[in-house]
Amino acid sequence: MMIKPPKFIYECTLKFAVFFSALMFVTCNQKKGVANESASNHTDDFQNLVQYVDPMIGTAKMGHTYPGATAPFGSVQLSPDTDTIPYELDGHYNPDVYKYCAGYQYDDTTIVGFSHTHFSGTGHSDLGDFLIMPTVGELQMNPGTESNPDTGYRSRFSHKNEHAEAGYYSVQLEDYNIKAELTATTRVGMHQYTFPKSEASHIILDLTSGIYNYKEKNVWTFVRVENDTLVTGYRQTNGWARTRKVYFAMAFSKPITKYGQENYDNNVYKGFWRKFDQNTNFPEMAGENLKAYFDFNTSEGEKVKIKFAISPVSTKGAINNMNVEIPHWDFEKVKEETQNSWNSELNKVQLDPINQDEMVNFYTAMYHAFLGPTVYMDVDGKYRGLDMNIHQAENFTNYTSFSLWDTYRALHPLFNVLQPKRNSDMINSMVSHYNQSVHGMLPVWSHYANENWCMIGYHSVSVIADAIVKGNTGFDAEAALMASVHTAKVPYYDGLEYYMEKGYVPEDKNGSSVSKTLEYAYDDWAIAQAAKKLGKDDIYNEFSERAENYKNVYDEKSGFMRPKLDDGSFKKDFDPLNTHGQGFIEGNSWNYSLYVPHAPNKMIEMMGGKEVFSQHLDSLFSMDLPDKYFENTEDISREGIIGNYVHGNEPSHHVVYLYNWTDTPWKSQDKIRMILKAMYQPKADGLGGNDDFGQMSAWYIFSTLGFYPVAPGSDVYALGSPAMKSATVNLENGNKFKVVVNNQSEENVFVDKVLLNGKELKEPFIKHDDIIKGGELNFYMSNRPNKILYNK
Amino acid sequence: MMIKPPKFIYECTLKFAVFFSALMFVTCNQKKGVANESASNHTDDFQNLVQYVDPMIGTAKMGHTYPGATAPFGSVQLSPDTDTIPYELDGHYNPDVYKYCAGYQYDDTTIVGFSHTHFSGTGHSDLGDFLIMPTVGELQMNPGTESNPDTGYRSRFSHKNEHAEAGYYSVQLEDYNIKAELTATTRVGMHQYTFPKSEASHIILDLTSGIYNYKEKNVWTFVRVENDTLVTGYRQTNGWARTRKVYFAMAFSKPITKYGQENYDNNVYKGFWRKFDQNTNFPEMAGENLKAYFDFNTSEGEKVKIKFAISPVSTKGAINNMNVEIPHWDFEKVKEETQNSWNSELNKVQLDPINQDEMVNFYTAMYHAFLGPTVYMDVDGKYRGLDMNIHQAENFTNYTSFSLWDTYRALHPLFNVLQPKRNSDMINSMVSHYNQSVHGMLPVWSHYANENWCMIGYHSVSVIADAIVKGNTGFDAEAALMASVHTAKVPYYDGLEYYMEKGYVPEDKNGSSVSKTLEYAYDDWAIAQAAKKLGKDDIYNEFSERAENYKNVYDEKSGFMRPKLDDGSFKKDFDPLNTHGQGFIEGNSWNYSLYVPHAPNKMIEMMGGKEVFSQHLDSLFSMDLPDKYFENTEDISREGIIGNYVHGNEPSHHVVYLYNWTDTPWKSQDKIRMILKAMYQPKADGLGGNDDFGQMSAWYIFSTLGFYPVAPGSDVYALGSPAMKSATVNLENGNKFKVVVNNQSEENVFVDKVLLNGKELKEPFIKHDDIIKGGELNFYMSNRPNKILYNK
């Protein structure tokens, strides 16, 4: 099913608002006295790009995106949950839970409520904090079921009465005749509910609801009704984050007339509360599983608004966040300002597309890329650290939710181009994490002051090295390097002890051993590059040596990377098409064997030379992956693969660009264009796999622009085939980098010639400085491969 | 069984230390340049009074005191727990739990371990945080049972190898041949364990252990092994305090060689921790029910020391508390300094006793009176408030654990004499509680940033009024009065709505209605007195009227206070000897009917006049209370009553002094001396009832000195019969108030004459100013009543 083109939404409601917002933005920047001409040129060209963002993309099947309202990199992601499926079903894992990583599935027909925190595109989840649902009529405190929504507070809805924009979401809740509208600033969600006339209008706050809800996920919930328009509290969970606490402050635009809780708690307070009726109008509630309700009388069409602020620190922090970010009740103003912010972020790349679908794809990819990592501190700079103490972020913005196994590949490199300040602060956040870590480790997959250890490698070091090598060092580079070195030497971490001793992880000691060995080797190379840049020869030498370890798991006989045992022999019964039990994770050996991004030439040599390798890549894209193997390919839909090339998961993201290291770089070009078309479509089920907090989108952005960072930690980008007519990258330093594509069309997918600042390129590569200094990259396209290009 | 006289301990180990401490104290005060002569006189007379303190008193039967180590008003109460009985047994209430309010019962034969927080003498409990037990040999992680201690880590012990002093405790753990010694500063407990030679010496940290442990009392526990000598973490509970969190930092004097946890948790983390062996040497532990162990090798006689700091704020706060309070590893020095502090507190009254037992009773009473409320803030003034936010105590010390139904009677009045600065700060703490309370209420029974609502009344107002009336206002008196007024008008609190409407609490609307009506009326009078002092006539008039409400529950026919129903009729089937279901709580009508402390003259008039009333009191003391009624008398042993006079519980504490308002004040005198002798004995089972955080002890101190505050909120003390030869009260203002008793002996219990500063008293009363200005009160005693004294 196709969703409504987002332009239509604009035509209805937004045209003037956004136009006004754009004006505001200019005024604002002028007021601040922006220093250089380029920056003000930027604002002169300011375009309404929010109109192209469609948050519905990826909300069906495996995309795991959410359609709700959020500000760029916002702490609050206020979004509808169409189900809150429990992790356990009759005591067993419930496979349906996986669909609800972002709380919303496009095919569902009911909305349970609107919760304030969501990951975007992840392959695991948590969060879903503070679900709010407005209802009228008889008070129901349980959500009910999709098959019989009347059994609970959830409501039917229809996509035809649903609109999603960057920073705004609305839906008609059919069961209650309530129009729900959502917007958000960085730390505050704002709700606007248009009620019918009713003597029994309710706002339900369900603290038991959550995403990936284990039976005992809630550790504690706490609610205080401070007065008749302000409620505070917190939710403490033991989910994917082991010890996670989010505080809130919720303000109502009109006084509540009555409130209460229904007790769903096994753990009832055994003190002297029998003095009171705790269930009605008693302003203190606490327990493992709280649900509260707040009642109003409403007139026909009356808008009840809620400001809902969160904080990692305290309810005091949440109240302060609310007061600073939304010191008024003007819903439209919040929406406008947030959409302004989005426009400002989106204008960092201005695109002239081949067709309008590409505008939607591109700016939705930009939107998804700018959803996280998310700001994780109060407006006063305080945040909760890994040690559970409150820390002050000194001169940086603290971020959380680092899905690093995914995002080190292209998202953080993209930030080094489009968001260098934020990327530096993300590294500051990682180094703070390191300083707070009792292991002395940088984040692996961390969120909300917790390390969840998800996936493999220690890819923070890649993010750090990439920034150092590219000269983006708004952080203490030496401290970050030392943190990287220390992280790479924690012996009890995931086979590292063996890796350091033997040069590979033995499969019989630690599973997924090949994937780990390959990724450690790459990470080690990245550390070496940073050390080299900083003149630390000892570290460079030490880690350059470790970077060669990929060779230790290469099986010359089979021509694949293959698990090795502790005794040095290869594991028997090896199947390079299978993933499970073969020494790999989230990728079979066919894909993972190509994972030596830091030494393509050596790898190609090892695998039989350029010609053999080029054909090997051809096979990957053309072979058939039988269903029994596909089922082992995680996190993607069938659309997420091409042959046996698995674009829907990360290990292959650099693969198509490897042709550049053979004599057949032209073979990458049509394939890149094919992947862009096949894997990214402007519809709810348009993503071929989890968006993975923007990594999939970052691939799309880079590849559309015509270049890609095959090995973060190098300052080199591999050229591909740009998929637009022209693009201007408005850099933070005020420079502009233009990519102009001549003779571009849907058919002309092959590159005939490339000029950088008027000078023809002899190799399919550009450098980071070429971009950052500003300049122009001219592609000349053709419908036939230029087989001697770059080989002249 | 008699415990060893505490003097003996001193002879063995302490004589020189304490002598040296006393010298230190003088030096210290001189260094600080104490301003006035009186204060330095005070130090000239400085006596070693710690030698008379016997912390074992009250540890048997119903005293509910603990024998462990603590500083005056200290946050840490480091004390042995002889059992950690669960609240529930086969799903039902386990009556044995009540014995263990302070964790220790003198008749027990094993020690489970040493935990860091204990209430003193309370009739309900909580706490018992962070139990530590040293063991050797095979690691056992469960406590085992008293009947078979070898099944767990607990150890046998004997009182002959056990010593308890103010600020110091030691015991030989027989099963392990370990000598355990404990001392403490305000926020840090210090352990010293003398181990035998062993390759397997363990320190167990059991976070599942606690006092009044409900099945699901632990909400969350969290441990970080920061390095090989420092461990941090917290324990969050849902016990008597609904949401309570205590942080800790634990330092070892020598590095641990190995550590780990055993998992007793239903709620196992479901994230990606399978990467690690979490059970051994993994520095992050978290879950509902953690137990950890730390291993050492020890040589024969090796002392392993532990500093264990707690904080209401954070582990960072705990570490800071440790560093500030004990920046070294000298156990003896800590003990010495803490015993110095105790001596300094005890020297506030210097006594010349009739016999040496009285010295033990008196200074142990002083010790018990100065155990709480306890300091509740970090050394930097930060503390957790009722709203769970972190607050800064500005210019006051924040206290917690207000057992106000008990302590408003004599303990806080005693503080107005001996601890005016602390009492002002306790009021500052109460007003802060009020400011943080979502109910707008002062504390009822509050501890650790929680209100547990225990017992009845709103007696914070009495503490505030008493301080205001007595001119002890190191707090904002007007703000405190307004907080009192607001507290007294919260309609949903415990029948207040009815009380305000009808002038009494109807028994059919809200139980224990007579007790509540009487105590509200007294509290209201106290508010009126404070208002009068501050010139707030409206409040004075309003609450003076409410103070008359005691009349509304007086039943002229029976001559008793009696429960009234909503319709205005008295409840039928009334039994003034029974407590349960009769409209009273923790006291029958015989005792409670005398509870009009603020208007004895009017009460006596109402009850038939002076002569009838005097005889009525005689009956109380001489009648027989049948067993079936005694069983309804809570919290006391059979020794806690005289006739039907229940001294072991609080409602009667003023009763014996009521003779002063009749023409027979002499009748109080022998009874006071009898109560002092009968209810307070220098042995483990020497207390007739719960010490109730010092209230019982405060009664002893006042009565021994010869006067008692019948109605806090008045500046008048009723005279009794002093039980010593002379006493000097060293006041904080530098003045001295001396009580000299002439012709004193065990037999001469009647007062023949009283002179205040040489002038004979015509009435059996003195005023607070008489004390605070300094002066001398001379009693002349006789073995026969002087029936015309005060009636001249």
From TrEMBL, chains A, B:
Give the Gene Ontology MF terms in alphabetical order.
Answer: hydrolase activity, acting on glycosyl bonds
Q: For this UniProt record, give its keywords in alphabetical order, as a comma-separated list.
A: Calcium, Glycosidase, Hydrolase
Whether Hydrolase counts among this entry's keywords is yes
Taxonomically, which superkingdom? Bacteria
Please name one Pfam family that this protein belongs to. Answer: Glyco_hydro_92
Q: Which cofactor does it need?
A: Ca(2+)
Assembly: Monomer.
The record ties this protein, via PANTHER family, to:
PEPTIDE N-GLYCANASE PNGASE -RELATED, SECRETED PROTEIN
Q: What is this protein called?
A: GH92 family glycosyl hydrolase
> Which organism does this record belong to?
Joostella atrarenae
